[in-house]
């Protein structure tokens, strides 16, 4: 279970997301034994957001401005992983993160733009205005292995979920 604390409201949102992503598979197609999922998605306006609650008919979306909206599942557009992406099996329940900042989900295209010219085997997202703002939650394209790496003020993260960028905001970390 991943716990997010939104700085503006101090509202706690407990979410759980898929643990296995395969090549050429829509990200929201893998399910786990829970009604709570976190999936990468894009709505019709191409506004970045993420699903914090999903049922067979509706999904509750969390946007960058901290607002939520309920939409019809049929209106969601799946994002397909690139063929050169590494397959990942990761138990997200073993990692607990607490974020004291605004949650800012980024779309897959935005991450690709930010990661141009970087290593093809791993992605380091630095803290600060030069890269992503502290506390940003994002989906990362490349992985090194199935764990988070804390290195100075940055985190090397994997795709397959949303992860904290600012190492100083990690209150509890376990693998």
TrEMBL record:
Protein name: Uncharacterized protein
Record lineage: Eukaryota, Metazoa, Ecdysozoa, Arthropoda, Hexapoda
């Amino acid at each position: 279970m991943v716990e997010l604390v939104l700085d503006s409201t101090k509202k706690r949102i407990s979410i759980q997301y898929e643990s296995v992503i395969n090549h050429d598979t829509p990200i929201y197609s893998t399910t786990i034994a829970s009604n709570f999922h976190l999936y990468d998605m894009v709505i019709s306006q191409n506004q970045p957001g993420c699903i914090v609650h999903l049922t067979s008919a509706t999904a509750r979306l969390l946007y960058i401005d901290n607002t939520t909206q309920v939409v019809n599942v049929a209106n969601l557009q799946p994002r397909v992983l690139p063929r050169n992406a590494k397959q990942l099996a990761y138990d997200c329940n073993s990692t607990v993160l607490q974020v004291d900042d605004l949650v800012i989900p980024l779309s897959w295209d935005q991450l690709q733009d930010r990661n141009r010219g970087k290593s093809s085997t791993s992605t380091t997202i630095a803290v600060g205005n030069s890269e992503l703002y502290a506390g940003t939650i994002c989906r990362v394209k490349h992985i090194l292995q199935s764990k988070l790496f804390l290195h100075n003020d940055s985190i090397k993260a994997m795709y397959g979920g949303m992860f904290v960028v600012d190492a100083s905001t990690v209150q509890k970390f376990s693998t």
